[in-house]
Amino acid sequence: MSGTPTAVVVAAALIEDGRLLLAQRTRPPELAGRWELPGGKVEPGESEDAALARELREELGVECSIGAALSGDVDLPGGLVLRTYRATLVSGTPAALEHSALRWVDAAMLSTMDLVDADRLWLPELREILLTSPGRS
Ligand SMILES: Nc1nc2c([nH]c(=O)n2[C@H]2C[C@H](O)[C@@H](COP(=O)(O)OP(=O)(O)OP(=O)(O)O)O2)c(=O)[nH]1
């Protein structure tokens, strides 16, 4: 007997010059206006790395290198599971192609942002990464 396979949503902790890129959602209504890590659903037959690189290309217009996963997964409604990977820019400048806005935040600013609930699991780890990343000179 096979159940419905769990679908994975991959999201990026994209860090550049000691700051993290957050994106403001436009949909669904209950999430519109709130900030998330860019990403999306893994398609059948696609690896998580490839899915995340594709989503970042589609949503931000950039090429990225995908690194290690952050600790832990978050169960989302509808049998989805959310997983976050570190990412770095290879080429391009992020643009809000599918979001209403983008914002680069440092550790202090991250704490003030209205993040979607699911992503709050990673706040301590993201703050730690930002505080130990090489900053802007
Ligand atoms: N991309 C992304 N989705 C998130 C985050 N946190 C969170 O709860 N979600 C939820 C919102 C959605 O219910 C689900 C999938 O997000 P999505 O709408 O970006 O995925 P997608 O582009 O592949 O979706 P779609 O075109 O099929 O609607 O994950 C996050 O940080 N990033």
Automatic annotation (TrEMBL):
Its recorded reaction(s) are:
8-oxo-dGTP + H2O = 8-oxo-dGMP + diphosphate + H(+)
Top-rank taxon of the source lineage equals Bacteria
Span of domain Nudix hydrolase: 5-128
Per UniProt, the keywords (alphabetical) are:
DNA damage, DNA repair, DNA replication, Hydrolase, Magnesium, Metal-binding, Mutator protein
Record Gene3D superfamilies: Nucleoside Triphosphate Pyrophosphohydrolase
EC annotation from Swiss-Prot or TrEMBL? 3.6.1.55
Pfam assignment, any one: NUDIX
Q: What are the required cofactors?
A: Mg(2+)
GO: which molecular function terms? hydrolase activity
Q: Which family does it belong to?
A: Belongs to the Nudix hydrolase family.
Which PANTHER family would you find in this protein's record?
8-OXO-DGTP DIPHOSPHATASE, NUDIX HYDROLASE FAMILY PROTEIN
Q: What name has this protein been given in UniProt?
A: 8-oxo-dGTP diphosphatase
Q: Which organism is it from?
A: Rhodococcoides yunnanense
